[in-house]
Amino acid sequence: MLTENLPKGKLINLSVLLFLALVLPAAVLLVQQVQIINKNATVNPIKAVLSPATITKNKGDSFTLTVNLTNISTSDKGLRVATTKLQFDPNVLEVQGTKTGTAYCGPKNFTATPCDATNFSQEACARVYDSDARVELSCFRRSADGILTLTASQSKALASVTFVVKNTATVGATTTVTITDLIAPDAVDSTDLSDGKENTVITIGTGGTGTPTLTPTPTGPSVDLKFMFRDVTVRPASCYRGTTLNFKVKMVKDGVAQTFNPVALAPTDANITADGIWTLRVYGFNKAAGNYNIYIKGPKQLQKKFPNKALTAAESQTVDLTPMGAKYYLEGGDLPIGDNGAQDGVVNSIDANSLVNCFADPESAACVAKADLNFDCIITSGDVNLMNNTIFTRWEDDEQP
Questions:
Q1: How far apart, in whole angstroms, are the C-alpha atoms of residue 284 and residue 218?
Q2: Are 110 and 377 in contact, with CB atoms under 8 Å apart?
Q3: Distance between CA 162 and CA 127 in Å, rounded?
Q4: Which domains can be identified in the chain, with CATH numbers?
Q5: Residue 33: C-alpha distances to residues 23, 37, 192, 307 (Å)
Q6: What is the arithmetic mean of pLDDT over 158-184?
Q7: In which band, very low, low, confident or very high, does the pLDDT at 205 lie, cut at 50, 70 and 90?
Q8: Residue 328 and residue 228: Cα distance in Å, rounded?
């Protein structure tokens, strides 16, 4: 044999080389297989992806980002709950509203309460934290709704957030909306399935002139009117953030009327209490002291008369109408469906048909704007009940300006 004439030392070295040549490739293959197994065992399959990934917007522009849940594995995954948090630069962006993704949550409205991972009765919740410029979004699927199954490489929308670019943004600069957290436990064993997160980069364009010019801040003597809406005992839901609601106010003393139309109110925590007391500030009161009949008409409510309320000649004053009781709560049903969105002062079949038609798209911006009577950002039987209370009722206006 070839090895018979080799010295003993060289024979040992050759044996070692033969051993390595045979065993090492198998060992490397084994290590590779172990690494693959370990990788598959440790990589979580659910990723949160913001869409679109890049976008260019000018000052004053609004845009919507969608949070998609993507299964990056090769097997189906089931979820019952998903929570994510977004971070943004408050000097550049402002949140205008949030909305559930119907593919994940179904047509459920986000509540304005803090998300609680132990409170499955919430179904869906969203909260904008202005103090640290973040948005928290969650969706819970009750057992009756079944498990949401994400098949391999499938994406479904968890939620969407609408932003507006502020005038303080720098033209040509970029800003990022970042997904800082994702919680997505397995529906069966609660193992955390969350993996990576993909953000959105916004470039501030050179076009546009910034946020549309707003009406100058009113000045002069003011009257703060405090009132409530019938069966509305919470603040408006998140889709009303960043919007403006227009009211009409009339004050009549000794047959002489002062009319204020429109009186704008942007729903915030500052002018609406947690239990649903609204404060509407009216500028330009003539400071003629005396007793007034005060009329208030909401954007989709009948005009309500508040009789014999005392006003003073003060530069600013508050008139609290809530102690008058439920009889004097503003009531919904006079929808803005006439020419140019005008109200006709009566709740009738035209209003009812418009409300019923909105059940085809209950969360659309158009339907929420005209027919959401309890301010929860979705058309439901609750709105129908409120309209039933006022059907065939006319607004209260026994004094003409």
A1: 8
A2: yes
A3: 13
A4: 46-204 (2.60.40.680), 222-388 (2.60.40)
A5: 15, 6, 24, 83
A6: 84
A7: confident
A8: 8
